[in-house]
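hiii so um. not sure if this is the right channel but i have a protein structure encoded as tokens and i wanna go backwards to a sequence. like what aa goes where. can anyone help
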């Protein structure tokens, strides 16, 4: 039922910014939405998430640099990424899961619905 399509990835120099978008459909207000990333040879990791009440959580590695938000009118999830570092280079995915509390929202295996991903490359 839920469909997610990411966009906005690209290449940026260290210290730069990018905003990722995730066009969402088929979900209800009970869904938690999250951003995840996976670099080659590494496990997928949670980056940021927002639950149905608007509560957010972030990975320690991105706190203070990334901001997750959603525009209900546009049915779009965003990830504003500032002060990007080379270690942020990865494929970024958005995901959705119903009735997921924010305390568990950075665990990839909690999510059932996934987008196709968008590549973010940060050069030094």
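sure thing!! here u go:
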């Amino acid at each position: 039922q839920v469909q997610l399509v990411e966009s906005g990835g690209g290449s940026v120099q260290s210290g730069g910014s990018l905003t990722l978008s995730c066009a969402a459909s088929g979900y209800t207000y009970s869904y938690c939405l999250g951003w995840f990333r996976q670099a080659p040879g590494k496990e997928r990791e949670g980056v940021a998430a927002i639950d149905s009440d608007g509560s957010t959580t972030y990975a320690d590695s991105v706190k203070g640099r990334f901001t997750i938000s959603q525009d209900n009118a546009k049915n779009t999830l965003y990830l504003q990424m500032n002060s990007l570092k080379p270690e942020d280079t990865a494929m970024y995915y958005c995901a959705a899961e119903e009735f997921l509390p924010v305390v568990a929202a950075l665990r990839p295996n909690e999510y059932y619905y996934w987008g196709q991903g968008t590549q973010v490359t940060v050069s030094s």
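oh and The mean pLDDT is 95.
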